[in-house]
């Protein structure tokens, strides 16, 4: 196992991307410091005692991505106000699929928006899911926090075939041709995590470093994709975009 190999090499600190990676490392060692980046609540995940006092050998950065579903749904309603039903696409193999579904449903209920869940974990599953969305006249798509095993370019190309307005959680997707994204800046989050790694290497204790929350969020629009979808972007939406791809 990779973790065991690194421990034999006397790794001084681990960087872990997501709860499963943290758990895998923790299962091998309760003493080597771990700095994580994740979209979930690390307290709810049982990884730290609290955000201010993590305890143990773990700390890091979270962007609470699950709590952004409401904002993403709001953006979809702004650009597709006639969409009666929004789809939420989730990978059932993702360890956080069920909490994400629960949070998305809560956000949709608060907004009075009908939300239907579609599951996919392979490219074949995606084709079936999108075909089902077309049959059900889905008006917009909220994409779960998962790559579905595809590059951003490949995934957005699949979405484009079905001409469904979609909102993503990462800038990579509108850059690759998706319509829009709203989420924490991963570059900034990784910088925050890197700062913590540096502090630990200088003698800091992971359990004494408060878990950081992402400090920079970005809304990215791809106007070329909007035109291809015959969407006239509202001026209010354009005015709050951090980046507009022409």
Write the layout of secondary structure elements.
Blueprint: H1 2-8, E1 14-17, H2 19-28, E2 34-38, E3 58-62, H3 69-79, E4 85-90, H4 97-111, E5 114-119, H5 123-135, E6 140-143, H6 152-162, E7 166-168, H7 172-175, E8 180-184, H8 186-201, E9 212-213, E10 217-222, H9 223-228, H10 235-240, E11 243-245
Parallel strand pairs: 1-2, 2-3, 3-9, 4-5, 4-6, 6-7, 7-8, 10-11
Antiparallel strand pairs: 8-10
Brief summary:
The protein is built from 10 helices and 11 strands.
CATH class bucket of the largest domain: Alpha Beta
Gyration radius, to the nearest Å? 19 Å
**Average of the residue pLDDT scores:** 91
**Strand ordering within the main sheet:** 5-4-6-7-8-10-11
* Count, helices: 10
Content-based structural category: alpha/beta
The poorly predicted ranges are: none
Helix percentage: 40-55%
Shape: elongated
Domains, number: 2
Fourth-level CATH superfamily of the largest domain: Response regulator
Under CATH, the topology of the largest domain is which? Rossmann fold
Describe the largest sheet: 7 strands, mixed
CATH architecture of the largest domain: 3-Layer(aba) Sandwich
Between the first and last Cα atoms, what is the distance in angstroms? 45 Å
């Amino acid at each position: 196992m990779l973790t065991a190999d690194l421990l034999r090499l006397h790794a001084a600190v681990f960087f872990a991307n997501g709860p499963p990676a943290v758990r895998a490392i923790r299962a091998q060692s309760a003493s080597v410091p771990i700095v994580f980046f994740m979209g979930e609540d690390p307290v709810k995940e049982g990884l730290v005692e609290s955000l201010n006092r993590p305890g143990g050998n773990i700390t890091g950065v979270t962007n609470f991505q699950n709590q952004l579903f409401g904002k993403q749904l709001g953006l979809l309603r702004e650009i597709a106000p006639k969409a009666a039903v929004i789809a939420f696409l989730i990978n059932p193999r993702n360890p956080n699929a069920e909490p994400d579904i629960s949070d998305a449903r809560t956000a949709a209920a608060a907004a009075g928006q009908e939300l239907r869940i579609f599951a996919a974990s392979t490219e074949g599953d995606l084709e079936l899911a999108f075909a089902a969305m077309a049959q059900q006249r889905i008006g917009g798509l909220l994409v779960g926090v998962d790559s579905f095993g595809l590059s951003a370019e490949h995934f957005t190309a699949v979405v484009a075939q079905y001409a469904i307005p979609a909102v993503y959680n990462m800038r990579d997707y509108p850059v690759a041709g998706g319509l829009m994204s709203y989420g924490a800046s991963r570059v900034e989050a990784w910088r925050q995590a890197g700062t913590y790694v540096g502090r630990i290497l200088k003698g800091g204790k992971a359990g004494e470093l408060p878990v950081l929350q992402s400090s920079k969020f970005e809304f990215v629009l791809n106007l070329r994709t909007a035109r291809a979808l015959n969407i006239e972007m509202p001026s209010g939406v354009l005015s709050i975009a951090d980046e507009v791809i022409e």
